Amino acid sequence: MAKLKKPEVLVVEDEASVLLTYRLLLEENGYTVFPAISSQEAGAVLGRKHFDLVLCDLSLEQNHTGFEVFERVRKRDPNVPCVMLTGYANRETTERAEQAGITVFFKPIDIDEFLRTLKTILRNAHGKPAKANRNQTAAKNC
Amino acid sequence: MENRQRRTATKPQRKTAKAEKSAAEDVHVRITEFPLPPEPATAEGGRYVYGIIEAKQPLSFGKMGIGGAGAPVYTVNFQDIAAVVSKTSVYIFDPTRENALAHEHVIETVMKTHTIIPMSFGTVFRTDDDIREVLRSIYASLKDVLKQMEGKLEFGLKVNWDRDRIIEELKDADEEIRRFHQEITRKHLQSTYFARMQLGRMIDKALSERSAQYVRDIYEALRGVCVASRDNKPIGDKMIMNAAFLVERERENDFDAAVNKIAKHYGELLNFKYTGPWPPYNFVNIRLKLERGTAS
To answer: Residue B72: which domain range?
Structure first.
């Protein structure tokens, strides 16, 4: 019987230990993770590979932002689901994410909720934000 | 700016089981700014410069010049040094695979019989006289570098590890990580963000320490058989070491044996990619540039 292909996720985060944490967490939960430590590295990977989902921190190296990564993703494939992680986001940022169809998670995230939402996102139609329950710490659905 | 192209050419294979030589290794070329502003080529075109050697008489190395037409490769001499060049009708070369390999092939051919100071990929001058002028102006420096590099070869060593395997090992062997990981599992702290982050930080720190230890050990094992080494930034998250070693030509076998020994020591844990011999790209950094003065 054919083996089910694991969803391939690009994770972009400029802090090595946090990137590793997401990687371990996602791998433990059945994802294949492609880590990128910078927007530049993410750009290089995006140029040669398609992903089932892109997970990116809002704040990246040297004033780069997750939006730059998402723009690159969407330019290549408008249907790839995008998830942004942030410890702080003002109204403008969340509205911008909402307009772009990007799901936002506020840190500290509830990990169970986070994992459930990723599953839902991948199950749902490509590109449409998932319907996640919003609680104090978890997903804000844009 | 240093920029290495992906190597796809053949290179003499090192005979080693573990310290494998990759057929798809890097081509060592540097791309620097164009030495002269592009101007319309003369009827004769420009001169592509591959490197500098010691030579009292004009030499020729065969028809293998860059550009696809197999232009003769010859020397432009000044006193007892010479630039290895070929004529070209273009001034700017794209760093395509074909061009990079042609550049590399000439350098490899020359280094069989000469110590060569390799030039950056894409170094083009207008005339032989321009080249002589540069050789004259930095003659002392070139002589000095040629003397320092005489009889020496460069070898590249990239070391990759199986990070996931090391992480699994750490979860078992590192007391602190093992305890914390068990705690997370036992108490079902999957949903605790801070606990997961703390575990991530602990593992990341342990990985860095382990990687640094391996790299130190490898340098230590090769210290006695090389003249110098240079640590370049590892590429990607699987690579822990990306080094270049300068080795006396006569100690090539000793270096070879030392690399094999250390590779064998680490067995399946580390993957050694060993390349060379190369000209001393990582130990020479000379850019040729002719600046014309204006007559007043």
So the answer is: 29-150+283-289
List, for residues B29-84, the tens digit of each pLDDT value.
Answer: 333 334 444 444 444 579 999 999 999 999 999 999 998 888 999 999 999 999 99
At B276, list the tokens: 């060379």
Q: What is the ipTM of this complex?
A: 0.79
Instruction: Note whether A112 contacts B190, CB cutoff 8 Å.
Output: yes
A2 vs B77: CA distance, rounded Å: 67
CB of B168 less than 8 A from some CB of A = no
Portion 121-140 of A in contact with B at CB < 8 A: 137
Residue A3: predicted pLDDT: 64
Q: Which H helix or E strand runs over B231? A: strand B228-232
The residues facing A35 across adjacent strands are A11
d(CA A110, CA B194): 10
Residue B195 CB neighbour total at 10 angstroms? 16
B245 located within any domain:
yes
What count of other Cβ atoms lies within 10 Å of the Cβ of residue B17?
A: 8
Report residue B49 as tokens: 């410069």
**CA pair distance B60, B76, nearest whole angstrom:** 10
- Range 174-203 of B in CB contact (< 8 A) with A: 190-194, 196-197, 199-201, 203
Are B38 and B25 a contacting pair, CB within 8 Å? no
If you write DSSP's letter for every residue of B166-213 in order, what string do you get?
HHHHHHHH-HHHHHHHHHHHHTTGGG-HHHHHHHHHHHHHHHHHHHHH
Tell me: do B212 and B116 sit in the same domain.
no
Give yes or no: residues B159 and B118 share one domain: no
Q: Which residues of B touch A33 (CB under 8 A)?
A: none
Mean pLDDT value across residues A27-34: 92
Average pLDDT, chain B: 81
